[in-house]
Specification:
Number of helices: 3
CATH superfamily of the largest domain: Aromatic compound dioxygenase
Oligomer: single chain
Strand content: 25-35%
Order of helices and strands: HHEEEEEEHEEEE
Largest sheet: 5 strands, mixed
Number of domains: 2
CATH topology of the largest domain: Protocatechuate 3,4-Dioxygenase, subunit A
Shape: globular
Length: about 210
Amino acid sequence: MTRLDLLRREFLEKCIVRGGLVAGASMSSNSLLAYWQHAEAAARKPTAPEVLGPFFKKGAPNSKDMRIAGEPGMTLRVSGKIIDVRGNAVPGARVDMWHADHKGIYDVHGYRYRTKLAIDSGTAYETLTIMPGHYPDRPAQHIHYLITAPGCKPLVTQLYFATDPFFEGDPDKNFGRRGVVSNRECVRPVTLLDESAKPHAAVTFDLILERA
């Protein structure tokens, strides 16, 4: 048992003795400690943060389809859940997403490949866009995120793609190349779907927020 476990046990036992916690007739202090430890083990890690980057722009439209007619690029569906570390829904979330176009260029004058999704209820978000291009300063393809929600800490992170040639087929080994990606968990698997005449890619990226 670690020092931290001992401190937790002592804390719980003191709370029970002093009436701060009430253990039912069938729940001893050991059972209550085990219950708490189980709940802690079940808690999810918050989504790892990444840098904001220089191209964030306020005022993006709430659009579930960022694709632009006539522009090149493989269609990409990005979806996931927005929850807290206990798995509870986070109502009222706002999800800013932005990325470079197929050529690796950001639109700094308008709102091409930018959205701010309003998730008023539920836990799911989804948008259609294209696979971002590469550019010299950040050679790994990526999508930027800024998530805010009432009662939660803001989250700035980025989504990367395990299929990106930058990772040379092994994201576990190469995610940290050139200091581009800080967190392996932000590199997500890509699924190629052929549900229509034109194949497209899909990525799932859950956003797990910390309560403030």
